[in-house]
Design brief:
By secondary structure, the protein is of the alpha+beta class. The chain contains 4 helices and 5 strands; from the N terminus they run H-H-E-H-H-E-E-E-E. Strands 1-2-3 form a 3-stranded mixed beta sheet, covered by helices on one side. It has a two-stranded antiparallel ribbon with strand order 4-5.
C-alpha cells in the first residue's frame, strides 16, 4: 500500500489508479507485484464495487482488500491488454495467490 500512498497526480477513480500503477510496472518488462494481505477487522468499510471510489478509503483494511481485488479485475480486463502486451512476464499476487497475466488474442488470460 506504500505505493498507493506515494502516488502523485492522483487520477480520479480507483480503476484509473490501478491502470496508472500498471503503467509504471510494464516499463520494467518483467514484474511481480505483490499486495499485502488484509483480514476483516472491526472498522467500517465502504464498498469499492465499481472503479469510481477515491484513494481516501485506504485507512480501512477491508477497503484495502477490496482495492487489491479491484486491481486484479482491472489488470485482467480489456483495458489492460495493450499495457500487458509490452511485458515479457507480469505477475500479480493478491491475498497470497499468484496470478500470471498473459495476453492472448486481445484478452488477458
Amino acid at each position: 500500500m506504500t505505493l498507493f500512498h506515494m502516488l502523485i497526480n492522483l487520477l480520479p477513480t480507483c480503476g484509473e489508479i490501478c491502470l496508472q500503477i500498471l503503467d509504471d510496472m510494464v516499463s520494467k518488462k518483467q514484474f511481480l507485484f505483490s499486495t499485502d494481505s488484509y483480514h476483516s477487522g472491526s472498522t467500517i468499510a465502504r464498498e469499492v464495487g465499481v472503479a469510481a471510489q477515491r484513494k481516501s478509503f485506504l485507512a480501512n483494511d477491508d477497503n484495502k482488500k477490496q482495492l487489491c481485488q479491484l486491481m486484479l479485475r482491472v489488470w485482467s480486463s480489456s483495458s489492460a491488454v495493450s499495457r500487458l502486451e509490452k511485458t515479457e512476464m507480469a505477475m500479480l499476487i493478491v491475498e497470497g495467490r499468484a496470478h500470471q497475466l498473459v495476453t492472448l488474442n486481445g484478452q488477458v488470460r
